[in-house]
Amino acid sequence: MIIGCPKEIKNNENRVALTPGGALELVRRGHTVLVQTQAGANSGYSDADYVQAGAEIQPDIQSVYARAETIVKVKEPIEEEYALIREGQLLFTYFHFASSRPLTEAMVHSGAVCLAYETVKAPDGSLPLLVPMSEVAGRMSVQEGAKYLERHAGGRGILLGGVPGVPPARVLILGAGIVGTEAAKMAAGLHANVTLMDINLDRLRYLANILPANVTLVFSSEYNIRRELDRVDLIIGAVLIPGAKAPHLITRQMLSEMRDGSVVIDVAVDQGGCIETCHPTTHEDPTYVIDGVIHYCVANMPGAVPFTSTLALTNATFPYLLQIAQKGWERATDENPGLKAGLNIVHGEIVYEEVAEAFA
User: Is residue 191 flagged as an active site residue?
Assistant: First the structure.
């Protein structure tokens, strides 16, 4: 199989979808690996590293798409890439279709096969290709929140953990999945006063046994969320409905109840966001202010720490990519139901129910 790894061109996306180590394993098995020049540079990998692994360096993105049967990426194709995608070509990457009609329509029109990282399932029903980036984003959300609470960044001038004699910041986390749990661990570790909400009581019971005492676990409801708004300093949105658009748990009207200089970070923004006033931003221009509240809504947060993120992501994705390379996507998905769950669009047809429902 000919596998292509283009350089990510989304704003400030510094990750790469294939490491030299991954390229080496594919080449050893007889596959051809095409890597666009400088694709791995921001993650710490030079063209020479890929050449040493047996990959072929391509001068531009057009040559990668033109030759490859399978394209492996980190983020969804952007508009400049749409015309490069061929009918029958497999794209293996994060898509988050439900939040973007233009992307969905472009991929349907292309006739390509779109296998989405975010809906691949493990035997236990978990989402193994979301986990590593969710871990990174959850931890980063607290790091970024602490930064934007500083006065010079427009925040209220609050130290997240406080000091003896001064109370710590109050942090509200919506969603107790991987993102929310990692955010709670980080915020609690910095001695913040943390409230973590979810509607899954079994999950809350489990977390009650592993999270520290400065994390309060609360059943999520509009009433309980509203009770926190006028006293919270940082809100982290971490809601996920696999493949579907996230629900708005905080509306524009509710936002007005928050204090000036408080911060919201919506990690669910690539799925439409769980805070109504959030829209995607970039690392180049990450924040904006509505009703005195700082919004940080970068859709590719892990791109800011590409060395860590690339390794975490490819550790998870490479075994699936190897299955695809060895068997072809049709046989690989037939034999692995979890991988088959990653199929979102096939030859112009939306085959993932939640995506179809989003645009019904």
Answer: no
Domain 131-304 coded CATH 3.40.309.10 = no
Look up 270 and say whether it is catalytic. Answer: yes
Q: Which one, of 271, 266, 265, lies nearest residue 245 by Cα?
A: 271
Predicted TM-score (pTM) of the model is 0.86
Residue from 31, 96, 198, 295 carrying the catalytic annotation? 96
E strands, the chain, are 2-5, 32-36, 56-58, 70-72, 90-93, 113-116, 170-174, 193-198, 215-219, 234-237, 263-266, 287-290, 293-296, 343-346, 349-350
pLDDT tens, position by position, for the chain (360 residues)?
999 999 999 888 999 999 999 999 999 999 999 999 999 999 999 999 999 999 999 999 999 999 999 999 999 999 999 999 999 999 999 999 988 999 999 999 999 999 999 999 999 999 999 999 999 999 999 999 999 999 999 999 999 999 999 999 999 999 999 999 999 999 999 999 999 999 999 999 999 999 999 999 999 999 999 999 999 999 999 997 776 778 899 999 999 999 999 999 999 998 888 999 999 999 999 999 999 999 999 988 999 999 999 999 999 999 999 999 999 999 999 999 999 999 999 999 999 999 998 887
Same CATH topology for 2-120+306-358 and 131-304: the answer is yes
3.40.50.720, 3.50.50.60, 3.30.70.2190, 1.10.540.10: which CATH number matches 2-120+306-358? Answer: 3.40.50.720
Give residue 45's identity as a one-letter amino acid code. Y
Catalytic residue among 49, 198, 266, 270: 270
